[in-house]
Amino acid sequence: MTATIDADAPEEEEPETGPHRRCIVTREVQPKERMLRFVLGPGREIVPDIAGKLPGRGMWLSARGDVLETALSRGAFLRAARGQVTFPPDLRVRIEDGLRGRVRDLLGLARRAGQAVSGWQAAREWLQAGRAGLLVQAADGSLAERARFGGRDLPAVTPLSAAELGIVFGRDHAVHVVVAPGRLAEAIRTEAERLAGFAGTPPEQA
């Protein structure tokens, strides 16, 4: 259940420990890997920390575009930072690009580790052999083709275009990608869901 947005709630010091964080807007507590972290840059600019590794105290938001807009319009970052801050004009673009980059990087790792294949035939072979832990399909692929591919009991995400998937796999385009079960598949799914939540699109467009 999603908490009601209350950007006027008083800020409290939240410890940067443990697997969960509290959103500075909704006050909802979630696993940190499903949220968005921000830090203050040297000039007190708000910097999105997509990988969650930059130094400094984090300010955390639920991974939703409307939550970011509320944070910006109602001063949530100012209260969390306890002072004036500045925002890059392309903040939303930076976040979306960063999330897309995370998906691409993780898919690339899976491909190089032999844990992901692309293309109708190879992906279907993995699917039929029970080697599939996650189905990644092109967001702009044909709905009929995606449905015909199968894998209805398999978690599926559509984070990237066919051209973007193709770049990862050294092809002109790719519509179907199958990832083996394991930590990489889980990480790709989490990043795809963060991107979908922030962009306001379903994680699976089947």
UniProtKB/TrEMBL annotation:
Instruction: List, for all copies, the residue spans of the domain called YlxR.
Output: 21-95
According to the UniProt record, where is the region Disordered? 1-20
Q: Name one Pfam family in it.
A: YlxR
Q: Which Gene3D superfamilies match?
A: 3.30.1330.30, YlxR-like
Coiled-coil spans in chain: none
**Top-level taxonomic group:** Bacteria
Q: What is this protein identified as?
A: YlxR domain-containing protein
* Taxon lineage: Bacteria, Pseudomonadati, Pseudomonadota, Alphaproteobacteria, Acetobacterales
